[in-house]
Design brief:
mainly alpha; 86% helix; 0% strand
Length: 217
């Protein structure tokens, strides 16, 4: 009986060895970082596909409008279907690669989600205010929706990247905001093209850079 108790005690001590706990913690942290990195790569790739396609659809519907009226109902419908599909894929990817990652990461993600929701509602509420004030279609249905949502989204993305200490994503998010700002000078139709294709190129570059960074580690 004594030998059995001694054996059990030694096994418990071995199981609680701080060195083993440190190794397990290091492995868990590494897996979490790998998951978040893969998450960033996949989301960048999705963005590189969605932005040029979605904004390209809207640009195609307005490219020959004189005077400018805004995207057609069919183009807007296709755009929102695309956004819905991409959002479902993005949420699925985020949940898959973030599984097991909790604590401050989840809190930050909730705060960013709240910021994004308020920013999106506020952006389109102001758009309604501009319409109510009888502002030109060139602004209300052209330059403003083609540029401002990406500008706001880029800044929110930069905040999230800074929380994760992700320099590559931080620079990418700021570049998207810069592209959206520059697109405002391209006119109501050109703004859709510059915002979509420019931001898509930025996202694709980010995905490639992250792949190189991952392979070099």
């Amino acid at each position: 009986m004594d030998d059995s108790n001694d054996t059990t005690a030694s096994e418990d001590e071995a199981a609680m060895d701080p060195r083993d706990a440190a190794v397990i913690l290091a492995e868990t942290t590494k897996k979490a970082h790998v998951g978040l990195e893969l998450n960033s790569i996949v989301l960048c790739a999705l963005g590189a596909l969605a932005l040029p396609t979605g904004f390209g659809i809207l640009w195609w519907s307005v490219r020959h409008q004189h005077p400018y009226q805004g995207p057609t109902v069919d183009a807007i419908g296709l755009f929102y279907v695309l956004i819905l599909v991409i959002d479902v894929l993005a949420v699925t990817v985020l949940r898959r690669f973030s599984r097991g990652v909790g604590g401050q990461f989840k809190k930050n993600r909730r705060m960013l989600g709240a910021m994004g929701g308020v920013g999106l509602v506020g952006t389109f509420a102001i758009m309604g205010g501009l319409e109510h004030a009888h502002v030109s279609n060139v602004v209300v249905y052209g330059i403003y929706p083609a540029c401002v949502p990406l500008l706001v989204g880029g800044l929110i993305g930069a905040v999230g990247a800074s929380q994760r200490d992700d320099r590559t994503m931080f620079i990418t998010a700021l570049c998207i905001s810069a592209v959206a700002t520059g697109a405002s000078f391209a006119g109501p139709a050109g703004a859709w093209a510059v915002s979509g294709f420019g931001s898509g190129a930025v996202m694709l570059t980010c995905a490639c850079v992250k792949l190189v960074q991952r392979s070099s580690r």
